């Protein structure tokens, strides 16, 4: 999960205007220019989620791990409803699958 969010950070904060990322997100050059600041903000948010997920693993804090996974799930559902349903497969399903594993291990 953390790797996915770190990857999104790089895409949205540093590579947003590149041809490959524009093709991935289905955006035009003009749209990418107009939304670069917004995309960087979203990338930063994904970086914070990734950092929280890594911290949860390192700290072995079950409450924190569950909280972060719920945050990822809620953010993913919102993104799927407002941006693209692909977010369900990239963000929601992996976090939802990780949740029972974390609870069983905890």
Give descriptors for this structure:
transmembrane helix; 0% strand; mainly alpha; 106 residues; 6 helices; transmembrane
Polypeptide structure, described:
86% of the residues lie in helices and 0% in strands. It is built from 6 helices and no strands. The longest helix has 24 residues, at 36-59. It has one domain (2-105).
Concise structural overview:
By secondary structure, this protein is mainly α.
- As a percent range, the share of helical residues equals over 70%
Oligomeric status:
single chain
Number of domains: 1
Structural category is mainly alpha
- Counting DSSP E segments of at least 2 residues, the number of strands comes to 0
Morphology: elongated
Poorly predicted runs are: none
Average pLDDT, all residues: 93
> What's the alpha carbon Rg, rounded to whole Å?
15 Å
Largest sheet: number of strands, sense, barrel closure: none
> How many H/I helical runs?
6
The fraction of residues assigned to DSSP E strands is under 5%
SSE ordering: HHHHHH
| N→C terminal distance | 18 Å
InterPro entries: DUF1304
Protein name: Membrane protein
Keywords: Membrane, Transmembrane, Transmembrane helix
Transmembrane segments: 62-81, 88-105
